[in-house]
Structures are given as structure tokens and as C-alpha cells.
Amino acid sequence: MVDVGQKASTSRVAVASGRVLLGPKVFDLVRDNQMKKGDVITVAQLAGVMGAKHTSLLIPLCHNISLSRVDVSLSMDMESNAITIRGEARTTGQTGVEMEALTAVSTAALTVYDMCKAVSKDICITSIRLDAKSGGRSGDYKRRKNPG
């Protein structure tokens, strides 16, 4: 791991997002809370929070960070039969929380897949990415709408 011992503690925030493409049949079952494993949205939201809290156990060289806030939200997009996931992590510390936000989104997406795979194997997890970060030596970052 990188030594961050000499770095000043600063307020840090990271926001990540991703999508799970379900298809119409699975989308309707999730929307209507009819999946056999239960409430997909609530379980995935909780799994995302747990994922953020356990990031350093999953990513070998990632620092164990004391998180002050983790927020995971899932929204259903009827037009594309997809779920959009947003994860935000906050801390005051010596290193950023990008990996925690990304792990929150990834874990939530994997949970959606797990809870829906009995109905369809065509589910696709896509577009997991860092959308914004603030704090730290490298400064602020915000993803452009159309990177070129």
C-alpha cells in the first residue's frame, strides 16, 4: 500500500454510478416486487452499503478507511428496462473514497444480478464509473457528459 501517513486529513467525497440492463420481463418483476428472493431494490441498496464498508477486504492494496457516510440509491428506468445505481462515499482522511463508491455500485449491481438470474441470464451490468470526486491533493473531478 502507498504510505499516506504524512498527508493531511481532508474532507473527501466520491460519487460513482452504474447500470443493470434487465430486459422487460425481469424489469416488470423487480418493479412489482415479485422476485422470489425478495425486494431487489432494498436488498441491493443494503448490499452496496456493505460493499463500501468492506472495500479494503476486497481490493488488496486499498486502505481501510473510516467512512462518515455511504449512500446507495437505485432508480428504475422504464424506457430502457434498466436500473441505474448511484453510490456516494464520504470521509475525512488521508486518502480518497473513490474505490468505496465504486465498490458500493458494483456490489449493488452484482446483488441485482444474483436476485434476478433465475429469471434471465441475459442481464448485463454496464457503465460502472467514477462520476465525481472532491478533496485531496489531486483536486476535484467531474465526469464530462460526452468525453472525447
Automatic annotation (TrEMBL):
Enzyme nomenclature, EC number: 4.6.1.17
Example GO biological process: Mo-molybdopterin cofactor biosynthetic process
Pathway assignment: Cofactor biosynthesis; molybdopterin biosynthesis
GO molecular function annotations of the record: cyclic pyranopterin monophosphate synthase activity; GTP 3',8'-cyclase activity
PANTHER family with a match to the protein in the record: MOLYBDENUM COFACTOR BIOSYNTHESIS PROTEIN 1 (PTHR22960:SF0), MOLYBDOPTERIN COFACTOR SYNTHESIS PROTEIN A (PTHR22960)
Keyword Lyase tagged: yes
NCBIfam families linked to this entry: moaC (TIGR00581), PRK09364.1 (NF006870)
Top-level class of the enzyme under EC nomenclature: lyase
Stored InterPro entries: MoaC, MoaC_bact/euk, MoaC_sf, MoCo_biosynth_MoaA/MoaC, Mopterin_CF_biosynth-C_dom
Catalysis: reaction(s): (8S)-3',8-cyclo-7,8-dihydroguanosine 5'-triphosphate = cyclic pyranopterin phosphate + diphosphate
Family annotation (Pfam families): MoaC
Lyase found in the keyword field: yes
Segments forming domain Molybdopterin cofactor biosynthesis C (MoaC): 1-136
SUPFAM superfamilies per the UniProt record, alphabetical: Molybdenum cofactor biosynthesis protein C, MoaC
Keyword terms: Lyase, Molybdenum cofactor biosynthesis
Protein name per its UniProtKB record: cyclic pyranopterin monophosphate synthase
